[in-house]
Amino acid sequence: MKRWRGFTWLLGAMLLGLAFxxxxxxxxxxxxxxxxxxxxxxxxxxxxxEVILLSQDREEVRLDELVGSGRPVLVDFIFATCTxxxxxxxxxxxxxxxxxxxxxxxxxxxxxTIDPEHDTPEVMKRYLERYRARPGxxxxxxxxASIERVMRAFDAYVPDKMSHRPLIFLRAPGDExxxxxxxxxxxxxxxxxxxxxxxx
Amino acid sequence: MSRAGLxxxxxxxxxxxxxxxxxxxxxxxxxxxxxxxxEVLRLGERMYRRGILPSGxxxxxxxxxxxxxxxxxxxxxxxxxxxxxxxxxGTVITLxxxxxxxxxxxxxxxxxxxxxxxxxxHLRREQIRPAYTxxxxxxxxRTGVDPAGRTLGPQMPRYALDDDDMAVLVHYxxxxxxxxxxxxxxxxxxxxxxxxxxxSATERSAMLLPLRAHVAAANTQTRQxxxxxxxxxxxxxxxxxxxxxxxxxxxxxxxxxxxxRSQLEAYYRDRPVFALLGxxxxxxxxxxxxxxxxxxxxxxxxxxxxxxxxxxxxxTLYFSKGRFQEGEAVARYLRSRPDPGSGPAAGRPVVxxxxxxxxxxxxxxxxxxxxxxxxxxxxxxxxxxxEDAPDAGFWRRLADTHPRAVLLLWxxxxxxxxxxxxxxxxxxxxxxxxxxGPLLGDDRSAVPDAxxxxxxxxxxxxxxxxxxxxxLVTRRWLESRGIPVADARxxxxxYLLGWMLSGVIKKMRHDLYRDYFLxxxxxxxxxxxxxxxxxxxxxxxxxxxxxxxxYLVELGxxxxxxxxxxxxxxxx
Lengths: 200, 572
Known about the structure:
The complex is a heterodimer of chains A (200) and B (572).
Chain A: H1 2-30, E1 40-45, E2 52-55, E3 60-62, H2 63-67, E4 73-78, H3 85-100, E5 108-113, H4 121-130, E6 137-141, H5 144-153, E7 167-171, E8 177-182, H6 187-198
Parallel strand pairs in A: 4-5, 5-6
Antiparallel strand pairs in A: 1-8, 2-3, 2-6, 4-7, 7-8
Chain B: H1 3-7, H2 15-22, H3 37-50, E1 60-63, E2 67-70, H4 76-80, E3 87-89, E4 92-94, H5 99-102, H6 113-117, H7 134-143, E5 158-159, H8 163-175, E6 188-196, H9 201-218, H10 225-231, H11 237-240, E7 245-253, H12 260-270, E8 275-277, H13 286-295, E9 299-300, E10 316-317, H14 323-336, E11 338-339, E12 343-344, E13 350-355, H15 358-373, E14 380-384, H16 392-401, E15 406-410, E16 432-436, H17 437-440, H18 449-452, E17 455-459, H19 468-480, H20 488-508, H21 514-522, E18 551-555, E19 563-567
Parallel strand pairs in B: 6-7, 6-8, 8-9, 9-10, 13-14, 13-15, 15-16, 16-17
Antiparallel strand pairs in B: 1-2, 1-5, 3-4, 11-12, 17-18, 18-19
């Protein structure tokens, strides 16, 4: 009996140790305790679907035509009531436009909502105003099926908005390959990527 | 999930009582500029929630090393949420900033000193950081360096705050979620549900029986929660000691709605509750909404077609905007879709006909407000008085006066006799007609066959047969609890409420604060399998109407017409 009690105690302690380790790993990966500043960069091919999206100005556009319009494009997936990921991504887009200055109009920034039930064009318009978006940055919605089709095409599908990831996709005009950035970037890092698209 | 472990601590709650108690005391916050404590808390709350400095200017900071941000973009609340207990989104965890967590040492798990002492030394984790002080909190907000010398992730803004503004914000954080919420005791969380005298017996039992069954299920002790809380293994203290029994009071309201507020106040004084669940009045909901807003009491999923529609109110989470949402959906539909019969509907005049009652007014207001937001001219309004009894002559005159109009007839079946008179119009062609499906109820046969081909009904629920699996799950659950199927929609709504409530309470663990209750609700996943009544319910900080769309259906022929879907779930 005593031995069993000792074993249970040991097992409990081991599990606790594992739990602490796992907890530490989560915090290191993502929390404010994160000391890394990195992001993952990869080059991918995506088949952009021919879906109709609705902009913050209630203009309907075809996504494949939008991304093939002869300008470098950046695409991200966000939603207006997002807690941490989208504010940082959108502040990044805002500052990128500011840093690009006169070149801002040469780069097309495309934000696509993953919460189409809530993010109406009016909500999206207010969102862009909050982030002081300049011409060239548009926010799009669609019916849920179309949104999910786009997410799947970019290998960014999540079954629920609360499990989404910080992703930015970039492509130079005429290029078939996309640069996929997973994580949060500084403006310096994002500018380096965008300059590469502007000056191939 | 290790949320509670990361957050570490027992803490806090609702600010209202604190503000009340503190109102007349001078603030001790250094540099608070001679303001009263209530004023400092108000200004601090504005900084935390809206990112606005006491001067009225936005707070400014930097994320990711070189990305400037300001309070117009997002605020502390955007990520740490209203309660301050933090958020989880994908792999990104935003740590708590509420008083109980900040001002205690952080060890990574909530464990008593006694339990910790029983661990072998090498597992006895030392503190990750000491408790914050006013000074070290100011330092971390400015530089991102915590009292242990760790550097916070770059997603946390480094705020440029002067000493006076910093004192205001820190003072607010010292009070944020810092005292237990009313309605929570050592072993119980108290809830109440409101039943108004206007509710039918069917509505009452369809709401109440499932709710009671959920509470009973939470209290069954099938997992021996109370024994585990008292003597469970020490390394699971954090999980087990959070368990509380649930208690549900029924607050019966009588008399006119203007008197409900004082009845609610009396119930609350007698036995304070943590939150309201469900509820049905058979009439308006605004008195309960106002009571909850004023006292910062969450109210989850009342059964009402007349919710208060507000972009800023916080404490009541509704299933939908009710009748308002139907009017809104018709405006959206007309705005975005060409009318197949006779060119763009947008160019046709719109006439709203409704009775001067709460439901008619809500439907008309939903359309009017949305149509105005689209920059469209105001619709013609025809309000029927009690003496008005529409007949064929009435409808013919209306169609003659407004040829080719879009008619929004927010009326019940008894107001539709003679409506076929608008169909027989060779030169002008028939108008386009919209009706409220829920307002018609089972009286769909009152819509004359002759007008059905150019008439659409709002249907803000799942279509018949759309969700057989969810219907079956709800029915089986009711059967297993001996509850007869009565009003399937209300029972489906209450089944969903209980389903979500158990998840929310589990996720809250020890942080039993009202604001956190809503914060956790806001972070819940979209619901579709667990609710038969709606295609989808979705949530998010500040989103207070979970179902956001509406179908438009045509009626098939005959006395029991089939609903034929003519527009998808209208959401934009």
